[in-house]
Amino acid sequence: MSFPNQRMRRLRRTETLRRMSRETTLSRDDLVLPLFVVEGHGVREPIASMPGVERFSVDQVVEECRRVWDLGVPAVILFGIPDDKDGRGSGADAADGIVQRAVAAIKRDVSGLCVMTDVCMCEYTDHGHCGMIEAEHVVNDPSVERLAMTALSHARAGADIVAPSDMMDGRVGAIRRALDEHAFEDTIILSYAAKYASAYYGPFRDAAESTPQFGDRRSYQMDPPNAREAMREMALDIEEGADVLMVKPALAYLDILSEARRRFELPLAAYHVSGEYAMIHAAAERGWIDGPRAMEEALVSIKRAGADWILTYAAADLAGRLGH
Hints:
CATH topology: TIM Barrel
Structural class: alpha/beta
CATH superfamily: Aldolase class I
Distance between the termini: 47 Å
Order of helices and strands: HEEEHEHEEEHEHEHHEHEHHEH
Helix content: 25-40%
Oligomer: single chain
Strand order of the largest sheet: 1-4-5-8-9-10-11-12
CATH class: Alpha Beta
Strand content: 15-25%
CATH architecture: Alpha-Beta Barrel
Largest sheet: 8 strands, parallel, barrel
Number of helices: 11
Shape: globular
Number of strands: 12
């Protein structure tokens, strides 16, 4: 009995051959570590729903940034959790706000690290929504004004990249204008361009204390069944001045990421969100899967689908096992 000349297993025979034949390589340079910053001093608070993830006071987040920079992680993204919240999210654009102080401290001590900031209102408002509220409705244009001022305050503090995550219409253009008018034309905008109203955000909302106090976010975040709409959102953000586009969540939306890679030339980011991260840990704790292998496999799939940058809570853990 003759056998085909092509034996696909030849190139899988040894680890060396598998490495040499590998089509997609995950590296430390692909990773962005999300960090939660709180008030106080000497604070490191474990987050129960996100094993291995903590909240940090400003002094401790600087230490954590120094550690991850030494591991080879090139970038972090900061989420601020103030002690005091109100209806307009006053702490979001305060010059002495939690994120603003954290950015300045990190850039003083770990100057080479790329510092991104999440630009949204949900961590700062007492109602937990991503914009301003009128009659229990999230209003678009007043929210955009607040977001632009927040992004500008982050740039003034020294942020390299501002990342609006709110999904208000027109916010990328408003932020670009505000930055340019105040001589921050080099500040990069990473737009959460296709952010879905997902069930995978639960642990994050615990960590950031940002669960909506009424209703939900489906009137502004994208409807999960929609794909063509995501392409429209991305195209509009490019027109408005976005430098980098992001898909969130990542694993449940690899088709969106792949199609965006096919259509657009801008760098693409993907957020491996809290629920996706926590599920792997939960299964590993029960002995159902090999946690480190499953985590790396998940991130490789995100890279293979087209992501240039991957925001993941596993960045520091993976950095020690990955090359540049």
